[in-house]
């Protein structure tokens, strides 16, 4: 997927040619050859994002849905620390007496 942030471009995909300006969005289907030419007098700025196919063994070959990414930070807690359990309640820190020197 491409998005023209600013400027104007001439887009050629396979045998099709288009002129696109600021705010235009386009998709180049997988496997197609494309060419983008800046036709404005200033720099053209484009946003580009690419997705890849991911085969999920649970859904069979050819699935287009990637599984959710796992966080590197553990976010689960042991069953003994479930909300409302004794481990979940805050325990005040023991008081320290100031030493007199």
Automatic annotation (TrEMBL):
Name the predominant localization: nucleus
Name the segments for region: Disordered.
50-101
Instruction: Tell me which Pfam families the record gives.
Output: CENP-C_C
**Mif2/CENP-C cupin domain sequence ranges:** 1-50
Q: Name one GO biological process term.
A: attachment of mitotic spindle microtubules to kinetochore
Q: Where is the composition biased (Low complexity)?
A: 74-85
Q: Which UniProt keywords apply?
A: DNA-binding, Nucleus
Q: Where is the composition biased (Basic and acidic residues)?
A: 86-101
GO MF terms listed in the record are:
centromeric DNA binding
Q: Name one GO cellular component term.
A: nucleus
Record InterPro entries? CENP-C/Mif2/cnp3, Mif2/CENP-C_cupin, RmlC-like_jellyroll, RmlC_Cupin_sf
The places in or outside the cell where this protein is found are: Nucleus
Q: Which family does it belong to?
A: Belongs to the CENP-C/MIF2 family.
Question: What is the recorded name of this protein?
Answer: Mif2/CENP-C cupin domain-containing protein
């Amino acid at each position: 997927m491409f998005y023209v942030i600013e400027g104007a471009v001439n887009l050629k995909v396979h045998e099709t040619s288009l002129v696109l300006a600021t705010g235009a969005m386009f998709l180049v289907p997988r496997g197609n050859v494309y060419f983008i030419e800046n036709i404005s007098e200033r720099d053209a700025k484009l946003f580009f994002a690419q997705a890849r196919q991911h085969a999920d063994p649970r859904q069979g070959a050819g699935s287009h849905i990637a599984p959710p990414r796992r966080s590197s930070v553990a976010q689960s807690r042991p069953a003994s620390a479930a909300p409302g359990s004794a481990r979940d309640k805050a325990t005040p820190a023991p008081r320290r007496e100031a030493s007199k020197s």
